[in-house]
Amino acid sequence: MIYLPSILAFLAAALATALVLLNIFKSPRGPQKIFLVLAGIVLALEQVSLGLALSARDLPAFFSFFHPMLLGTALFPVFGLAFCLVFGKRDDREIAKRHLWWIIAAGIAVAALALTFPLRIYFREIHFIEDGSFWGLTVSGWGKAVGAYLLLANVFYLYCIENTYRAANVAGKVTLKYPFLGILAASLINFIVLGRFLAISIIDRYYFTVHSVGVIILCVSFIYAAYRYGLFNIQVYIGRRFATSAVAVVISGTYFLALAIITYVAGALGLPFDRLTVTVLSLFAAFLLIALLISGKAKRRLRQLVDENFYINRYDYRQEWRRYAALLAESATIDDLATNITSSLCETMLVKQGILHVSINGEKTAYHGFREGAVSEDTIAGIHGLLSKESVVIYKQPIGFESSEDNAGGIEQEGPAWVMAAARLGTAKETIGFIALGEKHMNTSFTEEDRNFLETVAVQTTAAFENLFLEEKIHESKQMEAFTRFASFMIHDLKNTVGMLSLTAENAKQNIGNAEFQMDAIETVERSVQKMRQLIDSLKTFEASHTIIKSETDIAALLEMSLAPMKQIAASAGVTLESHVDESLSALLDKDAIHRVIENIVLNGIEAISKEGALTVHARTVEDRLHIVITDDGEGFDPEYMKNNLFSPFHSTKKGGLGIGLVLCKSIVDSHGGRLHIKSEPGKGSTVTVSLPMD
C-alpha cells in the first residue's frame, strides 16, 4: 500500500530528476552543471529509496531499500557542497580544478563507508505498527554521526550560498533569490528533523515526510530559477576584500545550542522532549512576533532586509544617492556625466535600453542598450513632445515614433516601439533635454516608486549639467581673459619698439649723413628686430605670464644693456639719464625679463617729464636684496590713481596708453619673488624701487 509519505518522496524524486534533465539540455557545460547533475541524481536515488522503504511491510524489504537511500544520503553532501562552492562564481573552473581530487576522494570514501558497513550498526530498533507498515527507527551512535554529518553539510550549504548572494549584483540577486530561499527553507526543515533525531535518537515516518517536503521546495525553487533566468548566468567574484558573512553559521550554532539546552532540561526534569520543544519554540515565536509588532525599529529593519534582498525594484535610497553623488563628483565633462548617469540609471532600475539627450553647449546623446546613433532625430523630437506638459511620463505599453526616411549616416536606426518612461531635464522655464527608458527586465512594470525615483534623478542631473556648463563657460572666460592680457602685453612692448624706430626715422631726416648717427640707427634697428623676434617666440608658446629662467647676471652690464636704447630717447626729450651701480654687483635672475622691467619703467619716467629734467637709475644691495631704484622729477601720479588703479590693467594716466606697463613689470617682479614699490608726489616726480632676492 502506497500512502502520503511515499507519494511525497516519489514526487521529490521526480522533481530532482526533472531538475537534472532541465540542466542537462539547457545549461552550458561547466563544473557548476556537472556538480548539480550529480547532486540531483543522488538526491533522486535517495528519495526513490525512501519512498520504497516507507512502503515496506517487513524488515528484509525495508533493509533492501534503505541501503541505496543511505548511499544517496551520504553522497549528496559531497556533490551538493561542491556545487555550492562553485555556484555563481566567476572562477568556477579554477575552484573546481583546485578541489577536484578532494571531491573525488571524499565521494569514494563516503560511498565505501555507506556500502561497507552493515545497516544494523546504524540502528538500535526498527518499528512497525500493527498493520505492518513502517513507523520509525531508533538510531545508534553511528546513526547520530550520520545525522551530525548531514547537519554540518547543511550549515556549509547556507554559508556558501549566502556569500554568493551577498557578492552578486542586482541582476545576480534576482537569479539567486529563489535558489537561496529554497536552500534556506530546506535547511530549516532539516535542522528541525535532524535536531530531533540527534536529541532523542528517534525519527519516524512523519519526519521523513517533512524531509521530503523540504526536498520538494528545494527542487521547485531551482527548477523555476533555471527555467526563467538561467542558473549559471551570474558571475560573482569573492576575493579577500569581500567580507563574507557568517550569519548562517551563527544561526545554526544558536539553534544547536538551544536544542542542547532544551534536551538537557527535558532530561533533568523528566519532561517529554516533544512537548517541551514545542512549548519553547512556540514561546520564542510568540515573543518574536510581539517584538516585531511593538518595535518600529525592528519592523523597519525587517522591511529594509526584505526590500533590499527580495524586492530588487525597490531602492535603498541612501545607498543609491551615495552612488549618484559620487558619479556627479567624478564626471568632469558634460559627455562623462551623460554617459555615467544613463548607464547607472538603467542598471539601478533594471532597464534594458535607455538614452539621455541634452542640448547644452551643443547636443549630446548617451546610449545604454543601443548602438551610438541608433536613435533617430524623429524619436528625440517625439520624446520632447511627450514631455511638453508633464515632467515625467510612464506608459504601460512601449510607444514608438516614425523614423526619418533620410538616413545619410548609413546607421540602422531604431524602428520598434521601446519608450516606457521619460523625464524632462531642465527648469520650469527652459528644457535642456530628457531621459528616456525602455522596458524593464523580467517583464515588470514601472511603479509609482520608479516615477518618484526618476523624477528625483532628473532634477539632480539637471543641476549637475548646469554646474558643468557654468564651469566650462568660466574656463573659456579665463582663457579669453588670459589671451587678452597677453595680447595687451605684446602690444605694449611693440608700441615701445615702434616708438624707438619712429624716433630714429624722424632724426634720420636731419642726420642721415652723420656717420655716428648711422651707427646708432643701425644698433637701434638691430635691437628692435631682436625685440620683435623675442615677442614672436613668446607668442608661439602663448604664455600669459613670463617663464622665469634665472642665471648669474652682472648688474652693471644689465643696466648698460637696458639704458643704451633709452639714451637717445632721453636726449631727444631733454632728459638727463644717469646710472649708478655698486662695484662687483651680481644677482641670480632672468636677465631678459628684468631688462624689460627696467626699460618699461625708464621709458615711463622719460614720458612723465614734460620739460627738461633728470632720471637716475641706482642699483645697490640692501639687506641681502638687490634694489634697483629709478627716480624721475616728472609730474608724478595722481593720488586717486595710486590708490585705486595703479596695478590695474587698462587704466593709464597717459593719453593713448594701454595701462599695462606696470602690470607687466609687477608680474615679472612677483615671479622672481620680489616686490615693486612706487612712491610719488604730484608735480615732484616718482621713485620706483624694484626689490629682488639675490639668489
Architecture overview:
- This protein is α+β, with helices and mostly antiparallel strands and 695 residues long.
- The chain has four domains: 4-271, Up-down Bundle (Rhopdopsin 7-helix transmembrane proteins); 276-310, no CATH class; 317-468, GAF domain (Beta-Lactamase, 2-Layer Sandwich); 545-693, Heat Shock Protein 90 (2-Layer Sandwich), CATH 3.30.565.
- 61% of the residues lie in helices and 14% in strands.
- It is built from 19 helices and 15 strands.
- It has helices at 4-26, 31-54, 59-86, 92-116, 141-167, 170-200, 205-228, 247-269, 273-294, 296-310, 317-330, 334-348, 377-386, 448-511, 515-541, 555-572, 591-608, 639-644, 661-671, and strands at 123-128, 134-139, 202-204, 354-359, 363-368, 392-399, 419-426, 431-437, 551-554, 575-581, 586-589, 613-622, 625-632, 675-681, 685-693.
- The strands form four sheets. Strands 5-4-8-7-6 form a five-stranded antiparallel sheet, with helices on both faces. It has a five-stranded mixed sheet with strand order 10-12-13-15-14. It has a three-stranded antiparallel sheet with strand order 1-2-3.
- Helix 9 crosses helix 10 (296-310).
- The longest helix has 64 residues, at 448-511.
- The radius of gyration is 45 Å and the shape is elongated.
